[in-house]
Amino acid sequence: MKTCTRRLFLGTSLGGVGIAAFNPLDSRAEQGATCSNGPQGWSESRLSKAVLDGAIPDLSQALDRTRDGSLRSDDLRVAASSARLLFAHYDEIGLTVALQRQLEECKNNPSAQFVTLDQERTFRDMLTRRAIRLSEAEVHKMFSMPPDRKDRALEKALQIGLQQIHAAAVSALDRRAASMRPISGTRWEKRGSLFRVAFTDSDCEEFQLIIDTIGIVAGLNGIGCLVGCVACCGIAAGAVLIMELLQYVHDLLCEPEMARRRYGDPAAILAAC
Questions:
Q1: For the whole model, what pTM was predicted?
Q2: Of 9-23, 193-207, 222-236, 252-266, which range is least confident?
Q3: Is the dihedral of CA 65, 70, 76, 81 positive or negative?
Q4: 3-state secondary structure of 132
Q5: Cα–Cα distances in angstroms (integers) from residue 140 to residues 115, 125, 135, 143, 184, in the given order
Q6: Who's near 240: CB < 8 A, 6+ residues apart?
Q7: For the chain, domain boundaries
Q8: What does the mean pLDDT of the chain come to?
C-alpha cells in the first residue's frame, strides 16, 4: 500500500466527522471489492447525516469524560441511546447486513489489511479536526488487533450475528449507566464492586469479544476511509467511539488495576454519578 502524502478535505461533513475526500492511497475501483474497501451491497447515499450528527458528538463527549473523571451516569445513558439509534439506522438502511458480509469476507479471505503509521496519523488528524479526540495508541489499536484476537472475534460475530453484537453493546452501556451509583467502602480489588455486579473470567472474555468485533468494524472501515470510501469515515468514527466506551466499562469491571492506572481513582469516577 502506498504512503498517503496528500489529502483534500471537502467542506461538507457527515455526522460531524467531516468526511474527508482523501487523495486515495489506491482507488476502490483500482483495488476491486475487498473487505477493507468498505461494506458492499448497500446504498451509501442512505446513510443519514442527521443520525450521525446526533449520535457521534454524544459518544465523543462521553468518551472525553471518561478521561477526566467527570463521566456521569446520564452521559453513559445518552451514549447508549445514541449507539442504539445508530445501530437501528444501520438496520433500516441495510448497512448491518452489509457489515456482516464484510466481516464474513474478511474471515474467509484474509488479506493484508495493513496501514502505516503515517496513515494512522492521517486518520487521527481527520477525527481531531472534527473534535473526536483519540490518542495515537487508541487509533493504532483499531488498525492492529492481534490475529488471534481478531479470529476469535470474527468467529463470535459469525456465530451470533452483528445485530446481536450491537444489541449486546448497547445493553452493556445501558446496564452500566443504570448501576453507576456510589457504594460505601468500594474497593478496586473486588471485581465488579463499582457496579454491584460480579463478572466472572468467562463474562469478561465474552465482553471483550463484543468489543473486539466492533473494533474490527472500526479498523476495516478506517482503511476504507483512507482509500476513498466516504461513508466508511463515519462508520469507523462511530465504531471506534463505541469500542472505547465499552473498553472503559470492561476495564472497570474486569481489569480494576489497569483501570486505576488509566482512569484514576474510583472515587473521582463515582463522585459525579
A1: 0.81
A2: 9-23
A3: negative
A4: coil
A5: 9, 13, 9, 5, 38
A6: 134, 138, 139, 142, 215, 218, 222
A7: 14-36+45-271
A8: 79
